[in-house]
Amino acid sequence: MNFHTRKWIKPQDLNPNQTLFGGRLLEWIDEECALYSIIQLENPKTVTKYMSEIDFRSSAKQGDIIEIGIEVVKFGSASLTLKCEVRNKMTRETIITVDKIVMVALDENGKPKPHGKTKVEFVKDRLEDK
């Protein structure tokens, strides 16, 4: 799994228990999956269709640094299925896992649009081809 983004837990990210608010973490995961999928599918109109069961395994507190990891599970005709793990950067303890997140590429009318992708591509490789 590739860990792309790091977040520093700040006071505004905490719940009344003074640990990381789960809703904030899910917001970060959704944003990370959207950015990853938009780049992979080369379509800025890519949206979240489905998120499977979410497994909170531990928490984070103010001052912790977490990292968000994403891995491609499958390419569909208009979709990209990912899985996600968030862990504490310093201890490597898993905070949350999401086994299945489905992102869908849309056309200008908001309908699923086939993307023609079958494997992970890196932007640097696309630039070398031009």
TrEMBL record:
Going by the UniProt record, its keywords in alphabetical order are:
Hydrolase
State the InterPro entries in the record: Cytosol_ACT (IPR040170), HOTDOG_ACOT (IPR033120), HotDog_dom_sf (IPR029069), Thioestr_dom (IPR006683)
Q: Name one Pfam family in it.
A: 4HBT
A GO term, aspect molecular function: long-chain fatty acyl-CoA hydrolase activity
Q: Which residues form a coiled coil?
A: none
Q: Which GO terms describe its biological process?
A: acyl-CoA metabolic process; fatty acid catabolic process
CC per GO annotation: cytosol
Which top-rank group of organisms is this from?
A: Bacteria
Enumerate the spans annotated as HotDog ACOT-type domain: 1-109
- PANTHER family per the UniProt record, alphabetical: ACYL COENZYME A THIOESTER HYDROLASE, HOTDOG ACOT-TYPE DOMAIN-CONTAINING PROTEIN
Which protein family is it in? Belongs to the acyl coenzyme A hydrolase family.
Protein's name in the database:
Acyl-CoA hydrolase
Which organism does this sequence originate in?
Zunongwangia mangrovi
